[in-house]
Write a structure and sequence with these properties.
This protein is mainly α. About 65% of the residues lie in helices and about 10% in strands. It has 10 helices and 3 strands. A hairpin with a 4-residue loop joins strand 2 and strand 3. Helix 1 packs across helix 2.
């Protein structure tokens, strides 16, 4: 088949038309790489090769765009690329390339994510669940929540100070705060101890006024 038109299209692609009536879209860099122009003769195998190459190049560009905005796990990035319509083979090849240059590293991601969770007073249990949702493996998520320091007592106290200080008016209110903190993944014992100590300190400070 002969190419009858090669023109720019949106999103860094060129619209390629053939004398057989076929139309396909190719990344502009791939058009230059293969020297595609009006009059170029291609067979079906060559077209398939060009389209495969274009899909890979575009998948790589999209992956770099995603990573420029935020870090991703290998699984999460693969899923985003396939949902965007790129072929699984292209996505796998792009992930292999990114990993070879250290641009995707699940251990690094999990370490930083666990550290941020600890700093934001997210419980170890909730951090573990969040990492699974981000595509971190169970073993790695478990390892990171053990490696990173989660001071449960300090986290609970910080949350009480920030969100629940004014909700401790009576026993029923305290129990609601207790339930809310437990739902966040903190242990029963740690929550009850922290609430008891905080309420005792609050009562003492009010009596001292």
């Amino acid at each position: 088949m002969l190419l009858t038109a090669v023109g720019k299209d949106k999103k860094h692609c060129c619209r390629v038309e053939t004398d057989s009536g076929k139309t396909f879209f190719v990344d502009r860099d791939v058009v230059a790489e293969y020297g595609l122009k009006v009059g170029t003769s291609l067979d079906d195998a060559q077209v398939a090769e060009i389209l495969k190459r274009s899909d890979y190049v575009r998948a790589k560009e999209r992956a770099l765009w995603y990573l420029d905005r935020t870090d991703h796990t290998e699984k999460a990035l693969y899923e985003k690329l396939t949902r965007a319509g790129f072929a699984p083979e292209s996505c796998a090849a792009v992930l292999a390339w990114l990993k070879s240059y250290g641009m995707v590293d699940d251990r690094r991601f999990a370490t930083h994510f666990a550290e941020r969770c600890a700093e934001m007073n997210i419980s170890k249990r909730e951090a573990y669940q969040k990492m699974l949702l981000k595509g971190v493996s169970r073993d790695l998520a478990r390892e990171m929540t053990e490696e990173v320091s989660f001071d449960e007592s300090a986290q609970i106290r910080a949350l009480i100070e920030k969100k629940y200080r004014n909700r401790l008016g009576d026993r029923a209110a305290v129990e609601k705060v207790f339930a809310a903190l437990v739902r966040k993944g903190f242990s029963f014992g740690a929550v009850r101890t922290a609430l008891r100590e905080y309420c005792e300190e609050l009562e003492y400070s009010e009596e001292s006024v």
